[in-house]
Amino acid sequence: MTETIILGSDHGGYNLKTEIKTYLENAGYEVCDVGCFSQESCDYPMIAKQVAEGVLRLSCRGILVCGTGIGMSIAANRFDGIRASVCSDTFTARMTRMHNNSNILCLGERVVGKGLALDIVEIWLKTDFEGGRHLKRIEMI
Fold first, then answer.
1. Which of 15, 29, 61, 84 is least surrounded, with the fewest CB atoms within 10 Å of its CB?
2. Conformation bin of residue 105: beta by default, left when phi > 0, alpha when psi is -120 to 50
3. Is pLDDT above 80 for 63?
């Protein structure tokens, strides 16, 4: 079964989102792109809401991109059951999956370049949750 990834960005993350979408499609993922669809200014909380609600409804994972990743993570983490993590390096991408079972990856187009961003996405998607003692802690959230 093909894994679905819900993808969204604001205008500040539009270019990187486009690169990530191409990467995901070439890697065989089903991509649901909820916008934005240009560099015209838009409100990131609305995009984060669509991705978070989709992740919860479909029990899948999502990726959000804005200028820094921070605004998207704040907006997405308002939803019960969402664990959105801003990652700017491959170590945190791996650890947020292994220990926190992150279900939304947030990236900043103005923070990471395309090559590093795609490495982060790949590691985040391929890393499994360890469970065990970490599950107890996630259940406390």
1. 15
2. beta
3. yes
For residue 134, report the phi and psi dihedrals to the nearest 5 degrees.
-75, -30
**How distant, in Å, are the alpha carbons of 72, 78, 126 from that of 113?**
18, 27, 20
Choice among 11, 36, 66, 87 that is catalytic: 66
> Is 99 considered catalytic here?
yes
pLDDT of res. 69: 98
Query: CB–CB of 11/67 below 8 Å?
Result: no
Asked if the model's pLDDT at residue 55 lies above 80, the reply is: yes
Q: Please indicate whether residue 11 is annotated as part of the active site.
A: no
Catalytic residue among 32, 42, 60, 99: 99
